[in-house]
Amino acid sequence: xxxxxxxxxxxxxxxxxxxxxxxxxxxxxxxxxxxxxxxxxxxxxxxxxxxxxxxxxxxxxxxxxxxxxxxxxxxxxxxxxxxxxxxxxxxxxxxxxxxxxxxxxxxxxxxxxxxxxxxxxxxxxxxxxxxxxxxxxxxxxxxxxxxxxxxxxxxxxxxxxxxxxxxxxxxxxxxxxxxxxxxxxxxxxxxxxxxxxxxxxxxxxxxxxxxxxxxxxxxxxxxxxxxxxxxxxxxxxxxxxxxxxxxxxxxxxxxxxxxxxxxxxxxxxxxxxxxx
Length: 276
Description:
The chain is an alpha/beta fold. The chain has 2 domains: about 10-130 and about 255-270, 3-Layer(aba) Sandwich (Rossmann fold); about 135-245, Dihydrodipicolinate Reductase, domain 2 (2-Layer Sandwich), CATH 3.30.360. The protein contains 11 helices and 11 strands. The two termini are about 25 Å apart.
């Protein structure tokens, strides 16, 4: 643990795994100061590329391989390619520590990580990310949810290269009007669009699961923002939500994703905590 704070609790040591658009924003926020946390380490596929950036920080964290992060941190924020999820999360949760996961879609194929956390007192956190209303969905799930439907519309450049498009020979680069490119379950969407639909997986985990959560994906050449609309029918409420997210430097990821992680960190030590 780090320094002991005025309230008697230890400062938590944080590692950030991945220094893409989201990871860099989180590193900057932690370096600027979030009460109760200290940034101790980062990991990146090409550490030399980020040497200049890390040198600009008030207190440069150690740049370490993924497997070394759990030795110097109490909590890891995963901002890396989905195929690295297991190697990032497992060392932390197996030691009873916390892993904040942004590649939520990859969790559907890694049930053993959840079991590992359960057996060792660790925790995997899927933040709100680019969606609103997850608190409402989680509350409704304490009763009975009949259906959850999500319609996602994205700019063309945010969908290019998705495995589903490649495997089905769907060309969207030259479209001139909105095109529905997928309809199915959240589980299917996570496989076909692993860099795009973590929001759908988070929604499904909060509600009725990835096999009952229905999803449509549209490519829209007129859009500059990622648009999500959710409709939920339950025995406690019927509600719909819509959000238009400004893309980050990575067109596949919304700017609000990093902000939601920062908000979660602040909430853990807040004197007044709003939201479940």
